[in-house]
Fold:
Amino acid sequence: MILNMLPLLFPGTLNGINGLLAGKGARMQPRMQVLQGDITTLEVDVIVNAANSSLLGGGGVDGAIHRAAGPALLDACRQVRQQQGECPPGHAVITAAGNLKAKAVIHTVGPVWRGGEENEARLLEDAYRNSLLLAEANSYTSIAFPAISTGVYGYPKAAAAEIAVNTVAAHLIRRPQLQQVIFVCFDDEMTQLYQRLLTQHIQ
Ligand code: AR6
Structure:
C-alpha cells in the first residue's frame, strides 16, 4: 500500500524545466516523484529490482518482488541466467513481471559499499542509467526505483539518494520518452532525504 504520495518538481535549471515536466500547459506533471511504500504494489510499466548478480532472488526488496510476482518471475530470471550468465554490478536485465501489476521488472545490481574507493559511485550511477535505457529500449514510459544498494549492500543513504536523483535528472533532461520516474522509499528517513533533494533543486 502506498503510505504517502509526495510528488515533487525537480527542474534543476531553467533550461531543464521542460525536460523534467511531462505533458503540456496546465496538465504538466513532474516527471520525477517520491512515494513512500511498497514498490511491489505500483501500477507502473516497470519496477526495478535491487537484485544480486545471481538474479535468483534474495532478501529485502528482491525478496518482496519475488514473493509478490510468484514463481513465474524466478523462472524468467533463470532463463536470463542461462542465456547471459550472471549480471555484474551496474548492469541491468529485463523480465516479465509475473503476478505484479507492473508490465515488466528490470533487475539491476548495485554495488556493495566498501568504503567508497572501489568505484561504488560509478557503479550505482550505471545501475540507474542502464535501467532507464533498458526501459526506453522496451518502449516503456513509467518506471519505479527502490533505493538501490542502501539496504543489505550498505551504501550510505544520503550519498545514494543524491546519485539516484542526479543520475535520473541528467538522463530525463536529455531524453523525452520516460514520462514518470518514481523513487519508492520504504522508510521515513529515506523519504525525507529524497524530498529534500528534489526540493533543493526547485529553488
Ligand atoms: N519496497 C520498496 N523499498 C523496499 C522494499 C519494498 N518492498 N523492501 C525493502 N526496500 P535491499 P540492496 C528498501 O537490501 O541494498 C537482496 O538480498 C530498503 O529499505 O533490498 O541493493 C538482493 O538479493 C532499502 O532502502 O537491496 C541482494 O543480495 C532498499 O530497498 C541485496 O539484497 C534496498 O535494500 C541487494 O542489496
Observations:
- The longest strand covers residues 2-7.
- The chain has five helices and nine strands.
- The chain has one domain: 14-201.
